[in-house]
């Protein structure tokens, strides 16, 4: 489970979520770069990072709306062909965000939708990662989590192929490759 | 372990698995005469010319490189045996045939150092490649059926190098499926009008993967 120190978790919590304020807030207008007033009125809509939105939601100051990555449009695309959807462009932390958002938004279908998307893409990834050594366009569409999986399979397969074609087990250390100028002493040093 | 260049990915690198495979014993036919060798791992010898003796593979390769012995190819490395195994692999889509645990590494070492001691070496080499391909395809097909309820994956008779290749991928896959398919994320549809409390689903308790092979 992701923890306090997990780098991916920290980066994921920075994703913007659109929220609607339920209360007014004085002096917080600088949260929204496009607002004219220095206060926030009730009912204003803006984008906040997930960590802030989560804390305000616990204090019942905002209500969170479903992000664009989980809208009906994306769902239809994924149902059509999950492997071709460019999740990295939309939201590189698609799955983690979905897991965190699901209890907040109150949408019960997000969990099974994530599972469906992941299973579909996983099947596609299975065949591609172990086979072709070239980097395909498929790998540029994967989220962070999926690309870690993909990289793991790709590198272990590449290591095996490299071992199989032979080669010495001993590698020359990189530091020995540099040519150095050596000053040859001309003779015994004079006292 | 020396896989520290990227400790998250794999515990063993292929040369390390090969190193571990060199502990397997093979038969050699020495060309020299020597008393017993007392080593940390055991005693070997005495060596007499043309009398077979069993030594670990690393010692056999070292002697062969110095021209002091001939390595006898193991029994399973004959064309007939391998043909049988290949046929059996192709016929059973879910099971793996019993093969020596380090067959890939042993065969590679013997091809490299003792190619004159193996009969029909080209045939044997291509048969082993085919066997490896068929088995790996079976592993891939088996992986497609993993779901969130999978607690552990049992692959019987898989060899050391094959396990090493799939290990990082499988661990991550099982972790990902466990995270996404856990019951508290997927809300179960409530049965209306039923008052019986459902038995709690404890879910998988192991968070690490257990490969079971025999």
TrEMBL record, chain A:
<dbReference type="InterPro" id="IPR036224">
    <property type="entry name" value="GINS_bundle-like_dom_sf"/>
</dbReference>
<dbReference type="Pfam" id="PF05916">
    <property type="entry name" value="Sld5"/>
</dbReference>
<dbReference type="Pfam" id="PF22466">
    <property type="entry name" value="PSF3_N"/>
</dbReference>
<dbReference type="InterPro" id="IPR038437">
    <property type="entry name" value="GINS_Psf3_sf"/>
</dbReference>
<feature type="domain" description="GINS subunit">
    <location>
        <begin position="70"/>
        <end position="163"/>
    </location>
</feature>
<feature type="domain" description="DNA replication complex GINS protein PSF3 N-terminal">
    <location>
        <begin position="5"/>
        <end position="56"/>
    </location>
</feature>
<comment type="similarity">
    <text>Belongs to the GINS3/PSF3 family.</text>
</comment>
<dbReference type="GO" id="GO:0000811">
    <property type="term" value="C:GINS complex"/>
</dbReference>
<dbReference type="InterPro" id="IPR021151">
    <property type="entry name" value="GINS_A"/>
</dbReference>
<dbReference type="GO" id="GO:1902975">
    <property type="term" value="P:mitotic DNA replication initiation"/>
</dbReference>
<keyword id="KW-0539">Nucleus</keyword>
<dbReference type="InterPro" id="IPR010492">
    <property type="entry name" value="GINS_Psf3"/>
</dbReference>
<dbReference type="InterPro" id="IPR055221">
    <property type="entry name" value="PSF3_N"/>
</dbReference>
<keyword id="KW-0235">DNA replication</keyword>
<protein>
    <submittedName>
        <fullName>DNA replication complex GINS protein</fullName>
    </submittedName>
</protein>
TrEMBL record, chain B:
<comment type="similarity">
    <text>Belongs to the GINS2/PSF2 family.</text>
</comment>
<dbReference type="Pfam" id="PF05916">
    <property type="entry name" value="Sld5"/>
</dbReference>
<dbReference type="InterPro" id="IPR021151">
    <property type="entry name" value="GINS_A"/>
</dbReference>
<feature type="domain" description="GINS subunit">
    <location>
        <begin position="76"/>
        <end position="172"/>
    </location>
</feature>
<keyword id="KW-0539">Nucleus</keyword>
<dbReference type="GO" id="GO:0006260">
    <property type="term" value="P:DNA replication"/>
</dbReference>
<dbReference type="InterPro" id="IPR056784">
    <property type="entry name" value="PSF2_N"/>
</dbReference>
<comment type="subunit">
    <text>Component of the GINS complex.</text>
</comment>
<dbReference type="GO" id="GO:0000811">
    <property type="term" value="C:GINS complex"/>
</dbReference>
<protein>
    <recommendedName>
        <fullName>DNA replication complex GINS protein PSF2</fullName>
    </recommendedName>
</protein>
<feature type="domain" description="DNA replication complex GINS protein PSF2 N-terminal">
    <location>
        <begin position="13"/>
        <end position="71"/>
    </location>
</feature>
<dbReference type="InterPro" id="IPR007257">
    <property type="entry name" value="GINS_Psf2"/>
</dbReference>
<dbReference type="Pfam" id="PF25005">
    <property type="entry name" value="PSF2_N"/>
</dbReference>
<dbReference type="GO" id="GO:0000727">
    <property type="term" value="P:double-strand break repair via break-induced replication"/>
</dbReference>
<dbReference type="InterPro" id="IPR036224">
    <property type="entry name" value="GINS_bundle-like_dom_sf"/>
</dbReference>
<keyword id="KW-0235">DNA replication</keyword>
């Amino acid at each position: 489970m992701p923890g306090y120190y997990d780098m991916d978790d920290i980066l994921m919590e920075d994703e913007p979520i659109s929220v609607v304020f339920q209360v007014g807030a004085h002096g917080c207008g600088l949260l929204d770069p496009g607002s004219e007033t220095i206060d926030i009125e009730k009912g204003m809509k803006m984008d906040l990072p997930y960590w802030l939105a989560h804390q305000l939601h616990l204090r019942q100051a905002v209500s969170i709306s479903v992000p664009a990555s989980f809208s009906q449009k994306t769902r239809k695309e994924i149902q059509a062909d999950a492997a071709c959807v460019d999740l990295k462009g939309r939201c590189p932390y698609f799955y983690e965000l979905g897991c965190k958002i699901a209890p907040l938004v109150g949408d019960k279908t997000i969990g099974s939708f994530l599972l469906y998307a992941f299973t579909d893409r996983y099947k596609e990834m299975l065949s591609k990662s172990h086979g072709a050594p070239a980097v395909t366009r498929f790998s540029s569409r994967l989220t962070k989590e999926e690309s870690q999986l993909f990289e793991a399979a790709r590198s272990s397969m590449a290591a095996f192929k490299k071992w199989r074609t032979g080669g010495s087990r001993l590698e020359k250390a990189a530091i020995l490759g540099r040519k150095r100028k050596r000053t040859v002493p001309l003779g015994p040093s004079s006292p | 372990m020396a896989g520290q260049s990227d400790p998250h990915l794999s515990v063993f690198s292929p040369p390390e698995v090969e190193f571990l495979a060199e502990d397997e014993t093979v038969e050699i036919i020495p060309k020299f005469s020597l008393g017993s060798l007392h080593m940390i791992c055991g005693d070997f010898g005495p060596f007499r010319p043309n009398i077979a003796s069993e030594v670990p593979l690393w010692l056999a390769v070292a002697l062969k490189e110095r021209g002091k012995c001939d390595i006898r190819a193991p029994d399973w490395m004959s064309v007939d045996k391998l043909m049988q195994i290949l046929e059996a692999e192709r016929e059973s889509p879910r099971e793996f045939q019993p093969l020596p645990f380090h067959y890939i590494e042993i065969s590679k070492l013997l091809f490299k150092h003792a190619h004159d001691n193996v009969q029909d070496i080209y045939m044997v080499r291509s048969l082993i490649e085919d066997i490896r391909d068929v088995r790996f395809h079976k592993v891939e097909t088996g992986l497609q059926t993993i779901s969130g309820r999978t607690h552990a994956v049992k692959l019987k008779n898989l060899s050391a190098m094959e396990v090493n290749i799939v290990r990082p991928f499988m661990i991550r896959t099982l972790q990902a499926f466990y995270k996404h398919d856990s019951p508290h994320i997927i809300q179960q549809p409530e049965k209306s009008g039923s008052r019986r409390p459902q038995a709690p689903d404890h879910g998988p308790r192991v968070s690490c993967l257990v490969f079971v092979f025999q």
